[in-house]
Task: inverse folding
């Protein structure tokens, strides 16, 4: 187990940092911006404007 | 055995695409899903305006947050990309991306002479970093209108997944959208058409040259949990892995190249079982 952790230390650190960023993003309500964009038809995405 | 694993990848790709883009009512009614799952990003490039999409595209989401008035940085999307990247790297591209599946299927069409590379391949592969930096980050952040809102430049001018999975199905079913069609729709369809034609001859041209999501995940390839190792005591540098690699990566030298999408062809081809 320790060997696995040692071999994957950068991945573990990035995973933890990513988790912290993700949680901070939710605290800042960034997911609401994503949600608002995603539930409305994105005219740019479909090539209208 | 080898054939079986290739088949497994195709099944996983198809299953994942059906799971994340399986909102049948959207396709039938020409509408998009508007439920709470759209708070979440999916790992692959998958347009949130696709009628079947149940989640948000991480590249679209990143541009939406960066281009909004409230935020100049997206902890939410970057955190998501870091978590997925640290776990899987570009395994996502090879196994979990709907547009990757489309390109894989196109490449199976037995037409023309299949190629492994294009002239200037090395430089073309760096284009995806430029696309990421300019179209996904800088332009949405700094090319803003008078109220400080940016546009999703990558989605608007480049993304072929949006054209294929959202633009074409929605425009074909909606008279009002058909009336609004202009030069941009033509341009996006031209980009899509070029990539479709190229995909028949060359494996995954969009992934290797243009995909900003692949550019991000590729950076994680050397450290991700899902990475490769060369068993040096077994490797004879025979080059069988590179010959099997559709991206022409010298796997025995760079097993965790940022170009590698973890299709697994190299592992299957190694006569010495040197790739782990």
Result:
């Amino acid at each position: 187990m320790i060997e696995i952790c040692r071999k994957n230390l950068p991945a573990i650190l990035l995973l933890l940092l990513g988790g912290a960023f993700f949680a901070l993003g939710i605290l800042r309500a960034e997911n609401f911006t994503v949600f608002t964009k995603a539930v409305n038809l994105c005219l740019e995405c479909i090539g209208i404007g | 055995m080898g054939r079986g694993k290739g088949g497994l990848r195709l099944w996983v790709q198809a299953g994942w695409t059906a799971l994340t883009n399986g909102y049948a009512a959207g396709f039938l009614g020409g509408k998009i899903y508007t439920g709470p799952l759209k708070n979440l990003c999916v790992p692959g490039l998958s347009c949130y305006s696709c009628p079947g999409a149940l989640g948000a595209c991480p590249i679209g989401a990143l541009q939406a947050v960066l281009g909004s008035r409230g935020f100049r940085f997206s902890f939410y999307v970057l955190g998501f990309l870091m978590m997925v990247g640290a776990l899987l790297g570009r395994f996502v591209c090879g196994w979990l991306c709907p547009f990757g599946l489309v390109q894989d299927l196109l490449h199976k069409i037995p037409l023309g002479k299949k190629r492994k590379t294009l002239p200037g391949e090395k430089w073309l592969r760096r284009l995806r970093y430029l696309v990421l930096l300019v179209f996904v980050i800088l332009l949405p952040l700094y090319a803003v209108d008078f109220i400080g809102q940016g546009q999703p430049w990558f989605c608007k001018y480049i993304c072929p997944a949006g054209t294929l999975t959202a633009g074409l199905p929605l425009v074909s079913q909606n008279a009002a959208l058909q009336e609004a069609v202009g030069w941009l729709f033509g341009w996006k369809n031209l980009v899509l058409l070029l990539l479709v034609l190229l995909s028949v001859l060359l494996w995954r041209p969009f992934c290797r040259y243009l995909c900003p999501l692949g550019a991000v995940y590729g950076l994680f390839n050397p450290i991700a949990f899902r990475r490769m190792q060369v068993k040096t005591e077994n490797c004879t540098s025979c080059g069988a892995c590179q010959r099997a690699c559709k991206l022409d990566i010298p796997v025995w030298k760079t097993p965790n190249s940022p170009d590698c999408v973890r299709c697994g062809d190299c592992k299957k081809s190694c006569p010495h079982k040197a790739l782990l």
The longest helix of chain B spans residues 2-20. Chain B is about 55% helix and 0% strand.
